[in-house]
Protein backbone atom coordinates (compact mmCIF):
# COMPACT_ATOMS: atom_id res chain seq x y z
CA UNK A 1 0.00 0.00 0.00
CA UNK A 2 1.29 3.41 -0.90
CA UNK A 3 1.80 6.47 1.27
CA UNK A 4 -1.34 8.21 -0.03
CA UNK A 5 -3.45 5.35 1.28
CA UNK A 6 -1.94 5.64 4.78
CA UNK A 7 -2.29 9.43 4.75
CA UNK A 8 -5.97 9.10 3.87
CA UNK A 9 -6.48 6.56 6.68
CA UNK A 10 -4.72 8.91 9.13
CA UNK A 11 -6.93 11.82 8.14
CA UNK A 12 -10.09 9.75 8.53
CA UNK A 13 -9.04 8.37 11.93
CA UNK A 14 -8.19 11.87 13.18
CA UNK A 15 -11.50 13.28 11.93
CA UNK A 16 -13.39 10.47 13.66
CA UNK A 17 -11.49 11.11 16.90
CA UNK A 18 -12.12 14.86 16.66
CA UNK A 19 -15.82 14.19 16.02
CA UNK A 20 -16.09 11.80 18.96
CA UNK A 21 -14.51 14.39 21.26
CA UNK A 22 -16.89 17.09 19.95
CA UNK A 23 -19.89 14.80 20.42
CA UNK A 24 -18.76 13.90 23.95
CA UNK A 25 -18.41 17.58 24.85
CA UNK A 26 -21.89 18.25 23.46
CA UNK A 27 -23.33 15.39 25.49
CA UNK A 28 -21.53 16.61 28.61
CA UNK A 29 -23.19 20.00 28.27
CA UNK A 30 -26.61 18.39 27.81
CA UNK A 31 -26.05 15.78 30.54
CA UNK A 32 -26.60 13.13 27.90
CA UNK A 33 -25.04 9.77 27.21
CA UNK A 34 -21.25 10.20 27.01
CA UNK A 35 -18.59 8.55 24.91
CA UNK A 36 -16.53 6.28 27.18
CA UNK A 37 -12.99 7.50 27.82
CA UNK A 38 -11.76 4.07 26.75
CA UNK A 39 -13.28 4.68 23.30
CA UNK A 40 -11.66 8.10 23.01
CA UNK A 41 -8.27 6.63 23.95
CA UNK A 42 -8.74 3.71 21.55
CA UNK A 43 -9.30 6.05 18.60
CA UNK A 44 -6.38 8.21 19.71
CA UNK A 45 -4.15 5.14 20.03
CA UNK A 46 -4.91 3.85 16.54
CA UNK A 47 -3.78 7.13 15.05
CA UNK A 48 -6.15 9.89 16.13
CA UNK A 49 -4.06 11.55 18.84
CA UNK A 50 -3.62 14.74 16.79
CA UNK A 51 -7.39 14.99 16.31
CA UNK A 52 -7.93 14.50 20.04
CA UNK A 53 -5.43 17.24 20.88
CA UNK A 54 -7.08 19.64 18.43
CA UNK A 55 -10.49 18.85 19.94
CA UNK A 56 -9.16 19.38 23.45
CA UNK A 57 -7.96 22.83 22.44
CA UNK A 58 -11.04 23.87 20.44
CA UNK A 59 -13.70 22.73 22.92
CA UNK A 60 -11.59 22.80 26.12
CA UNK A 61 -12.64 19.22 26.63
CA UNK A 62 -10.90 16.76 28.98
CA UNK A 63 -8.30 19.39 29.81
CA UNK A 64 -8.55 18.71 33.55
CA UNK A 65 -7.88 15.00 33.15
CA UNK A 66 -4.15 14.27 33.49
CA UNK A 67 -4.58 11.05 31.53
CA UNK A 68 -5.70 13.13 28.53
CA UNK A 69 -3.41 16.13 29.09
CA UNK A 70 -0.32 13.91 29.17
CA UNK A 71 -1.61 10.81 27.39
CA UNK A 72 -2.63 12.39 24.10
CA UNK A 73 0.71 14.16 23.49
CA UNK A 74 2.50 10.93 24.46
CA UNK A 75 0.47 9.00 21.91
CA UNK A 76 1.16 11.65 19.27
CA UNK A 77 4.89 11.42 20.00
CA UNK A 78 4.69 7.64 19.71
CA UNK A 79 2.92 7.99 16.35
CA UNK A 80 5.59 10.38 15.06
CA UNK A 81 8.38 8.01 16.12
CA UNK A 82 6.62 5.02 14.54
CA UNK A 83 6.02 6.98 11.33
CA UNK A 84 9.67 7.98 11.23
CA UNK A 85 10.78 4.35 11.70
CA UNK A 86 8.26 3.15 9.12
CA UNK A 87 9.52 5.63 6.53
CA UNK A 88 13.14 4.56 7.06
CA UNK A 89 12.64 1.35 5.06
Automatic annotation (TrEMBL):
Keyword Transmembrane helix among UniProt keywords: yes
InterPro entries assigned to the protein according to its UniProt record, in alphabetical order: Cold_shock_CspA, DUF1294
Residue spans crossing the bilayer: 6-23, 39-59, 65-87
Residues spanning the signal sequence: none
Keyword Transmembrane: yes
Keywords: Membrane, Transmembrane, Transmembrane helix
Pfam families xref list: DUF1294
Name of the protein: DUF1294 domain-containing protein
The organism of origin for this protein: Cohnella silvisoli
Amino acid sequence: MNAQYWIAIGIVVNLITLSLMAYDKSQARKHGRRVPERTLFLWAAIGGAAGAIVAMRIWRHKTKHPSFVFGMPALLLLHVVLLYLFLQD
